[in-house]
Structures are given as structure tokens and as C-alpha cells.
Amino acid sequence: MLSKKEVKHIAQLSRIKLSEEEVKKYQQQLSVILDYFKEIQKVETKNILPMANTSGIKNVFRQDKPILESGERRKKLIEAAPSKEKNFIKVKEVFE
Q: Total domain count for the chain?
């Protein structure tokens, strides 16, 4: 079973605040999920060819073209952001 410390660490990485009650709840739930993965790892796959896609659908790439928004709409979007700098939306650092 995952420890409370591990659950709190996962929550911190996910930027989620958990109460002690939620830590206990997710400790149980995440442990069940990880136990299921342990069961899946026991399945013999030696003679099974790897597959990247089961549907046969292939990815169709397109040119990466910016969508130009009207100045007014862009201004409203930036104004609605909780934190901004110049004409950009400022977000929290993702990588440490």
C-alpha cells in the first residue's frame, strides 16, 4: 500500500491540495490501481507482437499555422487571466 507520504508527494507533483481525509481515501484507491498494474505485468506477452495502434487509423499531420485572433478578443482573454505580463498570460513554473 502507498504511504501517506507518497500520496502527498503525488498530490504535490499534481499541484493538488488534499485534506488528511482525502490522503487516506487516495492512499487506498491508488494502491488498488497499482496492484492491478502488478497483475497486468504477470501476463505472458512473449509471443505477442507489439502494437502501437489497434484501429488502423493513421495520424494525419497538418501545417502548424497560427490562428489570428481579433485584437479585441485577445485583449479580453488576457484581461481575464489571473496573472499577466505585457501582452502575455503568466503561468506558474512547470518544471523545477
A: 1
